[in-house]
């Protein structure tokens, strides 16, 4: 028996007592889990920063007025010379000390261009404090999925007001993007990593080897 056949056989055995006429909507699902965090927002942001750092990402704090300088410093410290940006990245966030490669729907960069770039700079849709996760939804300032998958370094800007406490809060906020606009949703928890057959951690396999996050206060 193949693995596929074995899995399907287990499913059939587990559902053998379900009437053929029964549909998923006929059975009530208990949803007693928390859907809202009761923590103060400042505490939620602190938790987000701590959990992002737990995933081996580098976290910085900055005000809106300090953001442009902080971006420049991060890029200088990483020796970034060529930087991919979404075509609609806010002008105030664009660094001019490096070569900027704009990616847009009319003139998308090739996979080779993305792979050869030193890094990518984007905004995000949400940050989830509970899991230290950054969410991208292909919205303004984020670009398409490929630009945050191929470069080896991702510098991501997260505004404090974008941080929510719990995963259910994030799902509720993303519902319209998915169901009405059909946007792809990407969850990022630290740099891309996996383990080889000997359980040795290997980074940069499915995405950026290095994730750096700037959490911005002040609107």
From TrEMBL:
Domain of life: Bacteria
Domain LUD: residue ranges: 46-216
Protein name (database record): Lactate utilization protein C
Record organism: Rubrobacter radiotolerans (Arthrobacter radiotolerans)
């Amino acid at each position: 028996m193949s693995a596929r056949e074995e899995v399907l056989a287990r499913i059939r055995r587990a559902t053998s007592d379900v009437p053929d006429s029964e549909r998923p909507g006929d059975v009530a699902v208990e949803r007693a889990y928390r859907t809202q965090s009761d923590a103060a927002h400042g505490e939620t942001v602190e938790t987000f920063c701590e959990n992002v750092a737990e995933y081996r990402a580098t976290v910085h704090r900055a005000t809106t007025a300090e953001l442009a300088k902080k971006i420049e410093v991060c890029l200088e410290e990483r020796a970034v010379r060529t930087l991919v940006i979404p075509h609609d990245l806010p002008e105030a966030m664009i660094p001019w000390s490096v070569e900027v490669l704009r990616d847009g729907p009319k003139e998308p960069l090739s996979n080779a261009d993305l792979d050869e770039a030193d890094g990518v700079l984007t905004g995000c849709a949400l940050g989830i404090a509970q899991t230290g996760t950054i969410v991208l939804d292909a919205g303004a300032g984020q670009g398409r999925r490929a630009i945050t998958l191929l470069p080896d370094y991702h510098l991501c800007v997260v505004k404090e007001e974008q941080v929510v406490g719990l995963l259910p809060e994030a799902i509720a906020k993303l519902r319209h993007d998915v169901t009405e606009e059909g946007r792809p949703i990407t969850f990022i928890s630290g740099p891309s990593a996996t383990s080889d057959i000997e359980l040795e951690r290997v980074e940069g396999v499915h995405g950026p080897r290095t994730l750096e996050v700037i959490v911005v206060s002040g609107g």
